[in-house]
Amino acid sequence: MAPLLERLRHRGWRLTAQRRVIAEAMAGEHVHLAADEVFERAREMLPEVSLATVYNTLNELVSMGELAEITHTDGRKRYDPNVAEPHHHLVCVDCGEMLDVVTEDPRLPTDQQHGFELLGVETTFRGRCPDCASSASSA
Amino acid sequence: MAPLLERLRHRGWRLTAQRRVIAEAMAGEHVHLAADEVFERAREMLPEVSLATVYNTLNELVSMGELAEITHTDGRKRYDPNVAEPHHHLVCVDCGEMLDVVTEDPRLPTDQQHGFELLGVETTFRGRCPDCASSASSA
DNA sequence: CTGACACATTAGAACAGTTCAAAGATTGGA
DNA sequence: TCCAATCTTTGAACTGTTCTAATGTGTCAG
């Protein structure tokens, strides 16, 4: 799938300077930035950009389906530009690093569906990343 | 497993009036209350109880391992007294109702582990509950 | 090209959920 | 009973996010 900026251009989305740097901040493969991190990155490229615009734009991209919103344990929302390939997440409980993993979706047996119309599944594997594991054992 | 209050008594946890009503508010099988809902329920039984105590107590119970903390999409933490039986959740995207479901844990293939030491898995099935499905189609 | 309207952006106030700090109340043990 | 430890309370502070009202910018019809 084309990168985020490309996709937005195709949609005829009005691409202002602010929106471009925000989209550029989200570029990449394993990107799971929180709003304040997007703000940081965007500001390096365009210092005048405001936090409100970052929030506006991220919310808009989410409702356009161009970004996925991930709710992290710490209460900050994170944004994932990888909406093309269905995937789950592997998160380090110590440093919060988040990686994409591609695994089979877990299944919900019919007798557990409670009459729900199923729409999706999200799985988060929690663990300790190599860096945190080695620094913990040496501590 | 014994209900929450029972377990707490066994641990010799100092059981004050406030703590008891908070624990009682969490009693039941499919309970996934947010802090303000616990506060509400507790206050019905003991009007003097304060919100700070609710937060203090919930956090304490979580670190004792007697409650599980669930991070909901809306930014409110929810608390689950069912820590005995490993389970996952089924959530209505419209009304937020949350049910426990018992399914097999999804597996993370070794080639996807990125060197992480795995600690746990959380799965959330998202869907629409029967009530919301019928009111949506009639709307 | 120009005016005008729609849309984007901004700063800061407002808001929700949660945590913190200091003072007061309660508990259990000597 | 008195003390020390612990619990509770109030209210302020903090974090992440949304809202508001004013200003700025792009686009297009004429």
Strand line-up in the sheet with most strands of chain A: 1-3-2
What value does the Rg of chain A take, in angstroms? 17 Å
Q: How can the largest sheet of chain A be summarized?
A: 3 strands, antiparallel
SSE string of chain A, helix = H, strand = E? HHEHHEEEEEH
Give the helix proportion of chain A (percent range). 25-40%
Oligomer: homodimer
- Please report which band the strand proportion of chain A falls in: under 5%, 5-15%, 15-25%, 25-35%, 35-45% or over 45%: 15-25%
- Stretches of chain A where pLDDT is under 50 for at least 5 consecutive residues are none
- What is the tally of beta strands of chain A? 6
What is the straight-line distance between the termini of chain A? Answer: 43 Å
Protein described:
The structure is a homodimer of 139-residue chains. Chain A is of the alpha+beta class. Helix content of chain A is 35%, strand content 22%. Chain A has five helices and six strands, in the order ααβααβββββα. Chain A has helices at 4-10, 17-25, 35-45, 51-63, 130-138, and strands at residues 33-34, 68-71, 77-80, 88-92, 98-101, 117-128. In chain A, strands 1-3-2 form a three-stranded antiparallel sheet. In chain A, a hairpin with a 5-residue loop joins strand 2 (68-71) and strand 3 (77-80). In chain A, helix 2 (17-25) crosses helix 3 and helix 3 packs across helix 4 (51-63). The first copy, chain A, starts with a helix and ends with a helix. The model of chain A has no long low-confidence stretch (mean pLDDT 91). The A-B interface holds A 69, 71-73, 75, 77, 88, 90, 92-93, 99, 101-109, 112-130, 133 and B 69, 71-73, 75, 77, 88, 90, 92-93, 99, 101-109, 112-130, 133. Strand 6 (117-128) of chain A pairs antiparallel with strand 6 (117-128) of chain B. The structure holds a DNA duplex (30 and 30 nucleotides).
